[in-house]
Amino acid sequence: MIEDTLLALFTPEGREDPYPHYAALHATGPVAPVDGGLVVVSGYEELQQTLREPALEVHDATFNARNRKEIAGLPSITVFADSMLMGRAPGHLRVRRLMAQAFTARQMASLAPTVHRLAADLVERLAGLCADGGSADFMAELAYPLPVRVIGELLGIPSADLGRFPPLVHDLGKVMDPLLTPDALTAADRAADELLAYFADLVAERRRRPQDDLVSALVRVRDADNGRLSDRELHANLILLFVAGFETTANLLGNSVALLLDRPDLQDALRHEPRTAEGYVEEVLRYDSPIQLTGRWAVGDVVIGGTAVPKDSNLLLLLGAGNRDARRYERPGDFDPARPGIKPLSFGGGPHYCLGAPLARLEARTTLPLLLDRIPRLRAAGAAVRGDWITVRGFARLPVTGAAR
Ligand code: HEM
Q1: What is the whole-number distance in angstroms between the Cα of residue 356 and the centre of ligand 1?
Q2: What is the pLDDT of residues 284-331, one digit of tens each?
Q3: Ligand 1: does its nearest atom lie under 6 Å from the Cβ of 111?
Q4: Residue 150 CA, closest ligand 1 atom number
């Protein structure tokens, strides 16, 4: 029964290893209607179609007002509803075009030396902790600090303020998880209020004294084009960049390293041929995606992969399952960085395709060779601890050791 498989997926065991449950869903069919208007999409091609179908929309303010009335007005819910992640055409495209200026190939090329410097500093520190038989938590020492510092640089957040962000962003991000508890919701609201106040102050400060950073650039756009980008939208989208780019990238780094720990062959390949990091990272994204799922709702009747999806259906898009679809990839459960034609669904697709994908890739491709160059034989130093989300897949703790060079 599909309901049983879904329930199993949401248990701690299912979170630890969702892949057998995804295989069970694939056996049921790539698009599976469930009682109560829910439709589960797990097939690779069907997910591609779902992400691009104009009659399937993100969970925007209208969806919240209809389906999540009791929480629709809370700060943690409205901050996302005001951001492009939950924005509908045509407003979505307008805001996305503005924000996309920060993620062009040229911007990435100019950010690359900064990413390299920040990653090298953190690798150096980790190597110091691992020297002389020591060990360190890769998540705390590198995976979490790196994306925070990189987004901080991009936005122009004073480095003294960056330490505040990880717990706030973590708490706020949890409203995106289907396993949201009342306590987590309260913490998310508190985090939303604090982040909104922080960004309102920062925007006011950059308006007074502009700098060479994204916040100042967006303030300029906002003020030159009065009314098209509201202050609410500006604050919400600045917060979105942090939330969308932090835990996701941290877990891409963590999942990449976890897969290396038992594999000296993969470590050697990355150390000797840093260019292979590109294929390695793509296969990590496919094999163990840091984002496992997202959602949509049907604003009209549609047919996905031959299955009728009636108006008002709520769709669960299992991106992590699509990445393991045997109709798309041979031996989907094998980790093989040399496999041809890897096109993971991990960054979504269509109009909401992840804006930060080039940045996340840059961070992971830069860090892995640096890490293995400094610590040539990276090993586990105790049991890894899984994070307790279902949307975000990765580790809360990942202890590592290895002699530094
Ligand atoms: C491995 C790391 C990352 C993963 C797996 C990831 C995944 C995703 C996914 C799946 C979506 C689409 C959600 C949907 O369509 O429902 C998305 C959207 C987005 N991501 Fe990422 N992301 C990552 C890193 C980043 C970074 C580093 C940033 C920016 C600093 C970022 C910014 C965004 C933004 C702004 C959107 C919304 C785009 C829109 O709605 O038009 N992401 N991401």
Answers
A1: 6
A2: 999 999 999 999 999 999 999 999 999 999 999 999 999 999 999 999
A3: no
A4: 30
| pLDDT value at residue 227 | 62
Q: Is the CB of 50 under 6 A from ligand 1?
A: no
Q: What is the CATH number assigned to the segment(s) 2-401?
A: 1.10.630.10
Q: Which atom of ligand 1 is nearest to the CA of 319?
A: 10
Whether the CB of 169 sits within 6 Å of ligand 1: no
347 lines ligand 1 (CB under 6 A): yes
Domain boundaries, the chain: 2-401
CA of 126 from ligand 1 middle (Å) equals 27
* pTM of model > 0.85: yes
- Helices 145-155 and 165-173: crossing angle in degrees, nearest 10, is 100
pLDDT of the residue at 226: 62
pLDDT of residue 142 exceeding 70, the answer is yes
Q: Quote the pLDDT of residue 300.
A: 98
Q: Which of 101, 153, 248, 317 to mutate to test the pocket of ligand 1 (most atoms within 8 A of CB)?
A: 248
Task: Tell me how far the alpha carbon of residue 223 lies from the centroid of ligand 1, in angstroms.
Answer: 26
